[in-house]
Design a protein that fits this description.
There is one protein chain. By secondary structure, the chain is an alpha+beta fold. Helix content is about 15%, strand content about 20%. It has four helices and 15 strands. A hairpin with a 5-residue loop joins strand 13 and strand 14 (about 235-240). It starts with a helix and ends in an 8-residue tail after the last strand. The relative contact order is 0.07. The model has no long low-confidence stretch (mean pLDDT about 90).
Length: about 270
């Protein structure tokens, strides 16, 4: 009898769901009373509504009713269907109203974040200052920025805090999707899109520019020309020799600089 009950719980596992999750139930959105496979399906659908005033996102914690995909019974949120006895999700979070049959993702609920995440609880820690979970490899190894995940990715503009994609923390402390960072690198963009600091170790690149500067002789009219620059990497402001290849920071030796107007000196 126990074996039969267990078989019933597993009936249909991984056989239902949408592009976002494998699950054996749908949700009734409390905001519009419509039925969707998951909250992402809801948000994708409502974000395309013609009238901007009708566009909205589903608040996961407010879901109260689900519909079993196996027997089509609508019921209160619970792990097991009250009618046919199947597990509507091998992973189930009562707080997030979240179901997923694909437990290989390593789902876990973070109380501090207030939402479920994937990747295995043992592989993540919650940074209280940043206000989000990060890979354990970043513990004591990242620059904290308060509420750093409470904004949109500066590349694709998807909200980072509950994004399904992997995120990464740059040396400057700003965050973006890992895929977006790799896309930046493929397009030879090496600066943070928010603060313009160098994202990678640029020492070899600066050495190559040094060689280009040395090999490129400036016309006589420009040899004594100087400009004021602001270094994006160290924030130092200095007056340096002008060169068509680039201006080198006298403080940190970076070429990640921009020309600025000369400082206004106080009247003597």
């Amino acid at each position: 009898m126990e074996d039969f009950a267990n078989q019933r719980l597993d009936f249909g596992k991984m056989g239902f769901g949408c592009q976002h999750y494998r699950r054996r139930c749908k949700i009734r959105a409390p905001c519009c009373n419509e039925i969707f496979d998951c909250r992402h399906c809801h948000n994708e659908s409502t974000s395309n509504l013609e009238r901007h005033s009708d566009r909205h996102e589903l608040v996961r914690h407010e879901v109260q009713k689900v519909i079993c995909t196996v027997c089509d019974t609508e019921q209160q949120v619970a792990r097991v269907c009250t009618n046919c006895g199947v597990n509507m999700g091998e992973y189930f979070c009562e707080i997030c109203k979240f179901y997923d049959d694909d437990t290989d993702k390593g789902q876990f609920h973070c109380n501090a974040c207030g939402i479920c995440r994937v990747g295995g609880r043992e592989n993540f820690f919650h940074c209280l200052k940043c206000g989000s979970c990060y890979s354990v490899g970043l513990r004591d190894n990242h620059l904290c920025v308060e509420n750093s995940m409470g904004h949109h990715c500066p590349i694709c503009y998807e909200y980072l805090f509950d994004s399904l994609k992997d995120t990464t923390v740059l040396k400057c402390g700003h965050t973006l999707h890992l895929d977006c960072l790799n896309e930046m690198k493929r397009h030879n963009q090496y600066c943070c899109p928010i603060c313009s600091k160098s994202v990678f170790d640029m020492s070899k690149a600066w050495k190559r520019i040094d060689e280009e500067v040395e090999a490129t002789v400036m016309p006589e009219d420009y040899r004594d020309k100087k400009v004021w620059i602001l270094c994006n990497d160290c924030n130092d402001t200095t007056e340096v020799p002008f060169h068509i290849i680039g201006q080198k920071c006298a403080h940190c030796r970076s070429y990640n600089t921009r020309t600025i107007a000369p400082p206004i000196l106080p009247d003597s």
